[in-house]
Design goal:
Layout (H helix, E strand, L loop, with lengths): L1 H33 L2 E6 L1 H4 L9 H11 L5 E4 L7 H15 L3 E5 L2 H5 L4 H17 L3 E5 L9 H17 L3 E3 L25 H16 L1
Parallel strand pairs: 1-2, 1-3, 3-4, 4-5
Helix pairs in contact: 3-8, 4-6, 6-7
Length: about 220
Amino acid sequence: FTVLVRPTTWMADGMKLLQVMLLCVVSFAARAAEVPVILVLGDSLSAGYGISAEQGWVSLLARRLKDQGFAHRVVNSSISGDTTAGGLSRLPAALDKHKPSIVLIELGANDGLRGQPVAQMRGNLEKLVAQVKAKNAKPVLFEMRIPSNYGTAYTAQFTLAFAAVAKADKTALVPFFLMPIATDKKWFLDDEIHPNAAAQPLLLDAVWPTLKPLLQ
């Protein structure tokens, strides 16, 4: 009789253990789903061109969030050379995969450097903002600028496009975040276009005042 009972007891204990394990897995998954995600959709300025990923301002953002007690997880979906059109094609999959609560849209510089129509870029920015809002996430636009040698009219229209989209769509706007370093070559790589590692904390400091209020 004792021999017959023991397997039944082991089986009951095993079922209880399995139930506990399943509850732990479900609980962990639920907690993971509750962690808000900040998605960065950018180009080389956010991808950390020419420096290690750990040195880039996006990685520094993740550290600052942790240090200041924010639970947010940062996902960097930036690609060097990307344009607003490229970001527009990549955004839907990124939204579905990461389900962000905030999306930082740092795109447009390459549109301008390639002399693409400002109206086209502005339309893409509007669509990016709309897609983010459709997923109940908060979009944040980054104002971009280009060298004046592209012509006064084009340069002015390009810069104004970002503020215009932000105002029309009631979207947070990060003022040109290269402004703190733009006039000093010591902050750039040899190409004089991409910020070096030493400049990255300054870029984060330029983004933080716009982003922090959205974290509360």
